[in-house]
């Protein structure tokens, strides 16, 4: 990851639930989502087994990243799907690409 902050979208195995987040360490955050899904199930992502990365954007500043995260969270599902499709048309799980 070249930039400091990442807005990301993860999903579950069946691609039925989307979770949007922001982080400065995507690898670590994906590991946390995986752990929570497999063990604690305390977070939204954990309860719905969301830890498969399907989309991400890089940002230089945390302010820009948070602003983008808030924007995406307001979108309807269809618009989020179109964004993912433009970046990752097959909805491949990208977890291994960021490690």
Automatic annotation (TrEMBL):
Domain GIY-YIG: 3-82
Domain of life: Bacteria
Listed InterPro entries: GIY-YIG_endonuc, GIY-YIG_endonuc_sf, UPF0213_domain
SUPFAM superfamilies reported for this sequence: GIY-YIG endonuclease
Pfam families in UniProt: GIY-YIG (PF01541)
Transmembrane segments: none
UniProt similarity note: Belongs to the UPF0213 family.
Family annotation (PANTHER family): BSL5627 PROTEIN, UPF0213 PROTEIN YHBQ
Protein name, per record: GIY-YIG nuclease family protein
Organism: Tenacibaculum singaporense
Lineage: Bacteria, Pseudomonadati, Bacteroidota, Flavobacteriia, Flavobacteriales
């Amino acid at each position: 990851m070249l930039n400091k902050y990442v807005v990301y979208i993860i999903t579950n195995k069946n691609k039925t639930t989307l979770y949007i987040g922001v982080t400065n360490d995507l690898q670590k955050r994906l590991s946390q989502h995986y752990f929570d899904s497999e063990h604690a199930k305390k977070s939204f992502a954990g309860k719905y087994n969301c830890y498969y990365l399907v989309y991400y954007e890089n940002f230089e500043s945390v302010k820009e990243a948070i602003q983008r995260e808030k924007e995406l969270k307001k979108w309807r599902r269809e618009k989020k799907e179109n964004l993912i499709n433009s970046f990752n048309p097959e909805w491949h799980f990208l977890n291994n690409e960021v490690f």
